[in-house]
Amino acid sequence: MIDPFGRAITYLRISVTDRCDLRCVYCMAEDMTFLPKRELLTLEELDRVAGAFVRLGTRKLRITGGEPLVRRDVMTLFRSLGARLGHGLDELTLTTNGTLLARYAEELAAAGVRRVNVSIDTLDPERFARITRRGDLAVVLDGAFAARAAGLAVKVNAVAMPGVNEDEFDRMVEWCGEQGFDLTLIETMPMGDLGLGDGARVDQYLPLSVVRARLRRRWTLTESAHRTGGPARYFEVAETGRRLGFITPMTHNFCESCNRVRLTCTGTLYMCLGQDDAADLRSVLRSGADDAALDDAIRAAIARKPKGHDFVIDRRTDKPAVARHMSVTGG
Ligand code: SAM
Ligand code: SF4
Fold it and tell me: Could you tell me the pTM of the whole model?
């Protein structure tokens, strides 16, 4: 599948649920209302759409949410998707908050998952509880260790928030080095309503160019050619031998090399994280379409993939450019 700008679309992110057992301040309101079950694609429908994408040339699937591991029977989906590895699919991965990883790490490995991203914004238990509004850091760390013990490569994702965790990045680089984890820092994206009151969104923006400059005082960072097909720029940390990534949607335009599209848990295909145009694949699935019709609907959507996005935070209204929650689109 080649989009209008010559980019091969080889990477699909699938959000399997909008639900989560945490309420991270930058992601969800505390009193978040979740979708009724009938709105969600069933596990069979998710598998069918993923199968169509693999048939059409998608080589990498990332399962996300919401928190993917809270979806009932989600291991059934991992197993059916894992069976496609080596049959068009090269990689099946997962982004998780880690709360249920200790329970599922072995099963994920058995299904063919080789890498997981675990979101850990801080190594301080109190801060962790505040950022996630209910999380227990020890449980998440146990999850990351269980993943490692099951043979999965672990990458820690941390959202950089000024005045919240910005004093911890040296320690996190060090800790990840000790644990054998890679680390990726993420710039906060202006999505959804924070529910933290006026100004919260603008205040939460910390340019990673600043963070990187600070980290360079202590660490030797060499830009790496490593690409995961994602939007991160990677550096090798000489002192730890691990990789450090930066995802900078606000300060760095990563659209040119975009090879990905996103499927929400309701079967809406977003061709770009920062734009509203979308294709409703659920109605295609539920209209009794055969595989050829489903493939056609996907091809037609890819043909509309836009060139790029333009995230803007309006400082007067403090309104995000795209009022969609990350937990719906899948981060
Ligand atoms: N629940 C899983 C987790 O937390 O890893 C998967 C879904 S979560 C939406 C995926 C990633 O998006 C997480 O690393 C999270 O920190 C990040 N994220 C959520 N809201 C964000 C925002 N407004 N800006 C930047 N990253 C965000
Ligand atoms: Fe849940 Fe992940 Fe959003 Fe945090 S970032 S509330 S863990 S979906």
Answer: 0.90
